[in-house]
């Protein structure tokens, strides 16, 4: 993170000849290069300290002025949400983070402006940038209520369920293999979208995932189990050990829902979690050994299914009758272990499976133990906080262990525990949790650091917003929204376009685990340029394209530039940006350029800027 004075968004590209242009733009390209430098977010502010000269040694130098962050230091926010839980929880969050700021002598960054906030909240809650007409409505709301009213509108928006279904489908299935894309992934996403549209309590959604059964064409929830069954057991061992090893699923369940990476204990005791022994991995695994897939998975895990046929998930009570598993220890000895869940609440051993439980009832018991575990609510609170704040209380968000835990006196630990307790109290309501976070002071802070909070180790204090790279899905939806790429397409053409764009984005910066990888701005810009034909076609679309619509409805040059900025960056240009762009457009006249081409180039530059590609 850079300090105030150098914006990480101000990154210029050396080659801005937009793909698809047939005119010679040797001069125009050089002029357009300045557009990137005009796309700024922060303004410089420095603090000069007086120094005494040798002859002034006897004179006490005046004290350096105390640092004051640029921008507003007060948040004018009236909560518009109904119910007393939001002000109650916002007060708890604000009190805890302010205690940490004071204890660490940190001054928080200034609060972001209304344009930054609508873009940030839109990306986080519905997975895309705001539309210009949504910004117009937002700015008409009373200044003290507009942010809270926006949060409520976003939580009720139809894109809310789609966005969170996207996220959870990737976390559950990853982005690779037969279940990472295509038919099976879409089935799961449809099921998840229905859960989020109804705002089903989180613990109920998880129970349904762990106890799902039937055909995946009827119930997309079963794909979570079907995707991670692992290698098929040899035929002569299936009666005793079940159809498949279920090793990947064991790891995925605890990682996603408990924030604990038990895969490190598959072959030996966990190296960073003293209380997590090897037998505990296999104890969880034993709950899953009566699960069966029809037709069975291929013998080798790398065998891809040539045809994505319908699959059925069921429970086979005729196999693994005693809920025992056999595993090899580091000394080469084979050990047997019965189904037993992870310990909780300081206990050395977890709850054991009732020997009478067979078939589906085993998975129902697993769901009960999981939801009752002390890490269940902490893990989801930590994950959601990380999604909105750029990092969790514990980071990475799914790796709680002895080397990555919060002390008893750590303010973050206390805040996480309080949020987890209240989340459970309010019936695991995901929208309530989002309201609490989105109304809190740290969520409204600018990303611009100051001299008191500019170090990486200070990110855990949440005294500034952390820059977040857009996920491939957020980029897709934001590009579609900004350019109105789908406006003139048929339903079939829309799906084909979205699939093609998303495939390109995922191939370049989406990893197999459903996470995003770090990238450098120039690499991403190069990616967008390589994919320039699709973007160029969307930008240049006549009549229903964004540039064409803005030119048809805006009265003058400045108004057109303002609306293009709102569409791409969700803000108006600064006066210096607007003036610079107008001068460059005027200079291009006479180089066989048309006003339409100049505005298309401007829009293309905005979409390829770092400011567009990051959530800030």
Structure description:
It is a single chain. The chain is mainly α. Among the domains are: 70-157 and 375-445 and 457-468, no CATH class; 231-372, no CATH class. 48% of the residues lie in helices and 4% in strands. It has 26 helices and 7 strands. A hairpin with a 5-residue loop joins β4 and β5 (334-338). α15 (374-389) packs across α17 (430-439), α22 packs antiparallel against α23 and α23 (557-569) packs parallel to α25 (595-607). It is globular and about 80 Å long. 42% of the residues are buried.
Key phrases:
616 residues; mainly alpha; 3-stranded antiparallel β-sheet; two-stranded antiparallel ribbon; 7 strands; 48% helix; 4% strand; globular
Backbone structural class? mainly alpha
Number of helices: 26
Large-scale geometry? globular
Work out the helicity level: 40-55%
Largest sheet: 3 strands, antiparallel
What percent of residues are in strands? under 5%
Amino-to-carboxy terminus distance: 12 Å
The overall pLDDT average reads 82
Strand order of the biggest β-sheet? 1-3-2
Rounded Rg: 27 Å
Q: Total strand count, please?
A: 7
Runs in which pLDDT lies below 50 for 5 or more consecutive residues are: 1-17, 19-33, 39-69, 516-522
């Amino acid at each position: 993170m850079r300090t105030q004075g150098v914006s990480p968004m101000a990154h210029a590209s050396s080659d801005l000849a937009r793909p698809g242009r047939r005119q010679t733009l040797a001069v125009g390209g050089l002029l357009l290069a300045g557009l990137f430098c005009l796309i700024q977010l922060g303004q410089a502010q420095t603090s000069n300290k007086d120094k005494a000269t040798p002859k002034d040694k006897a004179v006490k130098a005046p004290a350096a002025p105390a640092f004051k962050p640029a921008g507003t230091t007060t948040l004018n926010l009236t909560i518009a949400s109904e119910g007393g839980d939001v002000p109650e929880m916002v007060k708890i969050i604000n009190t805890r983070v302010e205690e940490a700021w004071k204890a660490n002598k940190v001054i928080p960054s200034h609060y972001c402006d209304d344009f930054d906030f609508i873009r940030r909240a839109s990306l986080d809650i519905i997975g895309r940038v705001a539309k210009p007409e949504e910004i117009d409505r937002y700015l008409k709301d009373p200044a003290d209520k507009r942010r809270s009213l926006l949060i409520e509108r976003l939580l009720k928006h139809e894109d809310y369920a789609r966005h969170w279904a996207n996220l959870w489908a990737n976390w559950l299935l990853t982005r690779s293999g037969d279940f990472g894309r295509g038919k099976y992934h879409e089935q799961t996403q449809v099921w998840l979208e229905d859960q989020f549209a109804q705002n089903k309590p989180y613990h109920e959604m998880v129970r349904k995932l762990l106890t799902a059964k039937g055909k995946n064409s009827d119930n997309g929830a079963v794909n979570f189990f079907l995707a991670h069954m692992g290698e098929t057991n040899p035929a002569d061992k299936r009666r005793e050990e079940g159809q498949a090893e279920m090793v990947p699923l064991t790891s995925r369940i605890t990682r996603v829902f408990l924030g604990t990476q038990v895969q490190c204990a598959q072959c030996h005791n966990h190296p960073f979690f003293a209380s997590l022994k090897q037998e505990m991995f296999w104890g969880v695994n034993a709950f899953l050994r009566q699960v069966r897939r029809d037709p069975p998975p291929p013998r080798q895990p790398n065998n891809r299914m040539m045809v994505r046929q319908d699959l059925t998930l069921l429970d086979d009570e005729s196999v693994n009758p005693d809920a025992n598993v056999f595993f090899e220890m580091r000394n080469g000895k084979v050990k047997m272990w019965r189904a037993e869940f992870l310990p909780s609440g300081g206990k050395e051993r977890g709850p054991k499976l009732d020997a009478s439980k067979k078939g589906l009832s085993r998975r129902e018991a697993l769901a009960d133990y999981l939801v009752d575990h002390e890490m269940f609510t902490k893990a989801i609170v930590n994950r959601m906080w990380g999604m909105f704040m750029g990092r969790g209380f514990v980071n990475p968000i799914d790796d709680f262990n002895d080397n990555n835990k919060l002390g008893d006196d750590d303010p973050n630990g206390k805040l996480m525990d309080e949020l987890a307790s209240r989340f459970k109290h309010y019936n695991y309501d995901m929208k309530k949790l989002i309201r609490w976070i989105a109304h809190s002071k740290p969520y409204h802070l600018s990303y611009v650091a100051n001299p008191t909070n500019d170090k990486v180790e200070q990110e855990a204090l949440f005294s500034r917003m952390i820059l977040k790279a857009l996920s491939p899905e957020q980029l897709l939806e934001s590009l579609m929204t900004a350019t109105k790429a789908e406006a003139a397409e048929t339903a079939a053409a829309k799906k084909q376009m979205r699939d093609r764009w998303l495939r390109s984005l995922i191939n370049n910066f989406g990893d197999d685990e459903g996470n995003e990888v770090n990238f450098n701005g120039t690499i991403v810009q190069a990616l967008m340029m390589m994919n320039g034909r699709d973007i160029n076609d969307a930008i240049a679309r006549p009549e229903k394209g964004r540039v064409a619509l803005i030119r048809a409805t805006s009265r003058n040059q400045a108004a057109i530039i303002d609306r293009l900025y709102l569409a791409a960056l969700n803000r108006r240009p600064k006066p210096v940006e607007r003036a610079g762009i107008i001068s460059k457009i005027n200079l291009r006249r006479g180089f066989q350029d048309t006003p339409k081409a100049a505005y298309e180039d401007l829009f293309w530059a905005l979409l390829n800027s770092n400011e567009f590609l990051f959530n800030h």
